[in-house]
Specification:
The longest helix is centred in the N-terminal third of the chain and has 41 residues. The protein is globular, with a radius of gyration of 30 Å. The chain is mainly α. Helix content is about 55%, strand content about 10%. The N and C termini lie far apart (about 75 Å). Helix 6 runs antiparallel to helix 7. Strand 1 and strand 2 form a beta hairpin.
C-alpha cells in the first residue's frame, strides 16, 4: 500500500498539489495582472487628461501665433511707410519698425543667434508637452510657443534673408521699446512660468514645497 501511494502520489505531495489546484501566491504575484506598478495602473486615467492639456497648449499657441501673424500683415500693408497712429495721445501709438534684434529691439548684432534660440525653445516645449498635466503650465507654454513661432516666422521669411529677417514691431508706448504681440505672448508666458515656479507647481501637475 505504501509503495502504491509512493508511485501514484498523495494530495500532500508537491506533484499532486500542482495539478488542478490554485497557483501559490508567489506565482500569482508574478502574473501579468498583479505585476502592474502604480504608473501602469494610473496611466489609462492620466492619458486623457494629458492629451487635453496638450490640446490646450497647442490651441493657445495657435491663437497667439495667428493673432501675431495677422497683426503684422495689417501693419506691413497699412502702416509701414506711413505716419504713426496715436492710440492714447503720445502715450501709446502704432508705428511700424523692422527689428533685427531680440524682443524689444535688443541685440541687433545677433540675429542668427536669436533665431537659433527661438528654434531651440520650440523644440524644448514640444518635448516637454509629453509630460504635461497642468493647465496653467499648458497656457504658459502655449504663449511661449506661439510667440516664439511668430518671431521665428519673421526671421525665416522676411528680408534681408533666411534666418536673418527683421521682426515687425509696431506697439510703441511712450519711453519704452517698440514691440509686437509675439513679444507680449513670450513675456506673459514667462511671467506665468515664474509665478507657477514660486508656487511649487510642476508641469506634470505635482506640487512641491522647498
Amino acid at each position: 500500500m505504501a509503495e502504491a501511494e509512493r508511485i501514484i502520489g498523495t494530495p500532500d505531495s508537491p506533484e499532486a498539489a500542482g495539478d488542478g489546484q490554485e497557483r501559490p501566491e508567489a506565482e500569482q504575484a508574478r502574473s501579468p495582472e498583479r505585476a502592474e506598478g502604480p504608473e501602469q495602473a494610473q496611466s489609462p486615467a492620466e492619458r486623457p487628461r494629458g492629451r487635453r492639456r496638450i490640446a490646450v497648449l497647442f490651441a493657445v499657441a495657435a491663437f497667439a501665433y495667428v493673432l501675431d501673424l495677422v497683426s503684422k500683415m495689417i501693419v506691413v500693408a497699412k502702416l509701414e511707410h506711413h505716419e504713426p497712429i496715436e492710440i492714447i495721445g503720445d502715450w501709446l501709438r502704432f508705428e511700424a519698425i523692422r527689428n533685427a534684434g531680440a524682443a524689444f529691439g535688443f541685440g541687433e548684432a545677433f540675429t542668427v543667434i536669436f533665431t537659433v534660440i527661438a528654434a531651440a525653445v520650440i523644440v524644448v516645449i514640444a518635448r516637454l508637452a509629453r509630460k504635461l498635466y497642468s493647465l496653467p503650465w499648458a497656457i504658459a507654454l502655449g504663449l511661449l510657443l506661439g510667440g516664439a513661432l511668430g518671431n521665428l516666422t519673421d526671421r525665416i521669411f522676411r528680408s534681408p534673408g533666411v534666418f536673418e529677417g527683421a521682426v515687425v514691431d509696431f506697439i510703441a508706448p511712450k519711453h519704452f521699446a517698440v514691440f509686437n504681440l509675439a513679444d507680449s505672448a513670450i513675456v506673459c508666458g514667462g511671467i506665468l512660468i515664474v509665478l507657477l515656479s514660486f508656487r511649487g507647481l510642476d508641469p506634470d501637475g505635482t506640487v512641491h514645497k522647498d
